[in-house]
Amino acid sequence: MKFEKEKWQRSLDEAVEELLVKGNLKAPINVIQVGFLDKDIAKQSSILLGVEVESGGIILTKDRLIHAKPQRKELYKHAFRVEEMKKIVEILADKNNSYVDIREGKRNIVFVFGDEQDETKANLIPIEILRSHKKIQQKNYILTLDKVDKREFAKNMKGGFVKKIK
Prior knowledge:
There is one protein chain. 36% of the residues lie in helices and 26% in strands. The chain contains seven helices and eight strands, in the order αβαβααααβββββαβ. Strands 1, 2, 3, 4, 5, 6, 7 and 8 form an eight-stranded mixed β-sheet that branches. A hairpin with a 6-residue loop joins strand 3 and strand 4 (108-114).
C-alpha cells in the first residue's frame, strides 16, 4: 500500500501544480486516484448511513479539482489552500479523520482535518458514496472539497447529524 500512496501523492501533486498553480486547464489530467476506502470504514459507514458501501478507490476528477480552486472558493470563504490540497492522500489514509454525515442531501463519508492557518475552520473531504466515475471499471468514489466553521461542524456532531467512524 505504501507504493500506491506514493504514486497517488505524485499524481495529486502534479495535478495541483498543473491545473491550479500553473492554470494549465488543457493538461491531460482527467482523473487521479488519491486513496482507497478500506473495508472497515465501508462496513461502519454502511451501518451508520443505512446504505451499502463497498471498499474501493477514491478519486478526484479534473472538474472537481478546478471547481475547488482557491481563487473561486475564496469568494465565499470555503477555499482549500494549495498546501492543504496536497495533504488529501495523507488525510484519506488516516482512519482517525473519518466521519459520516447523515443529513438529508449529504449522506456521505467525510474526512476532516483542521485548518493550520485558521483555528476556527475545518477542512472537509466528502466522499460521495452514491456517485462513481463510470469509465473506471472497479468500484470508485468521487471526492469533493469544502471548508466549514468548526463550531458548525461541532454543532452537527452534537446534534447527531455527523458521526465519528470508530
